[in-house]
Amino acid sequence: MLKRATLLLMICTLSLTAVQAQPTRPTPYMASIASGRAMMRTGPGQNYPGIWLYVRRDLPIQVIEVYREWRKIRDPDGQVGWMLVSLLSDQRTAIVRGEGLADMRDSPDEASATRFRAEPNVVGRVSRCGSGWCWFAVGNRAGYIRVDRLWGVDANEVVR
């Protein structure tokens, strides 16, 4: 009897962990890939063929549909497919887009000093977004970057 109770508790805990990885909320919303290896599939199940293997942790994605423990996602290049919720994170990230280097500044102001410059396709974590700027952290380097240089944050979105 004790073994059954322990097994039931373990199953409930594992189920809650998967649900906590990505709570159900209105779509679309932004998230990121949590795993260093994440398979995108043609449908919401492991029996569907894999179409893309992501090996880039923290890559921003947009969740556009929810079906049980599966999320239909769009990646920064527009590829759409399904991924297990346990492979995703609520951690907000973004990827630098556009031509040339993107300035990362001391404060959210064009007149402030440039701390670093980020190349297109650099992925970083975003926070404190508002008024067209986000705090963008790439490893141990960080600064404010214009939202129009990022994919992963809407132009008028506020991120805390």
General description of the model:
The longest helix has 20 residues, at 2-21. The chain is mainly β and 160 residues long. A five-stranded antiparallel beta sheet has the order 6-5-4-1-7, with no helix packed on it. A five-stranded antiparallel beta sheet has the order 13-12-11-8-14, with no helix packed on it. A two-stranded antiparallel sheet has the order 2-3. The protein has one helix at residues 2-21; strands spanning 29-33, 38-41, 50-54, 60-67, 70-74, 80-84, 88-89, 93-96, 102-105, 114-118, 123-130, 133-138, 141-146, 150-151.
SSE blueprint:
Elements: H1 2-21, E1 29-33, E2 38-41, E3 50-54, E4 60-67, E5 70-74, E6 80-84, E7 88-89, E8 93-96, E9 102-105, E10 114-118, E11 123-130, E12 133-138, E13 141-146, E14 150-151
Antiparallel strand pairs: 1-4, 1-7, 2-3, 4-5, 5-6, 8-11, 8-14, 9-10, 11-12, 12-13
What are its keywords?
mainly beta; SH3 type barrels; five-stranded antiparallel sheet; 43% strand; 160 residues; 1 helix; 2 domains; single chain
| Percent of sequence in beta strands | 35-45%
CATH evolutionary superfamily of the largest domain: SH3 Domains
Order of helices and strands: HEEEEEEEEEEEEEE
Write down the overall mean pLDDT: 90
- Overall, the morphology is elongated
Which CATH-level-2 architecture of the largest domain?
Roll
Query: Low-confidence parts lasting 5 or more residues at pLDDT below 50?
Result: 5-20
Under CATH at level 1, the class of the largest domain stands as Mainly Beta
Number of beta strands: 14
| Helix-strand makeup class | mainly beta
Largest sheet: 5 strands, antiparallel
CATH topology of the largest domain: SH3 type barrels
Record the strand order, biggest sheet: 6-5-4-1-7
Helical content, roughly?
A: 10-25%
What is the count of structural domains? 2
Q: What is the CA-CA span between the terminal residues?
A: 47 Å
Give me the Rg, rounded.
Answer: 18 Å
Number of helices: 1
- The assembly state of the depicted protein chains is single chain
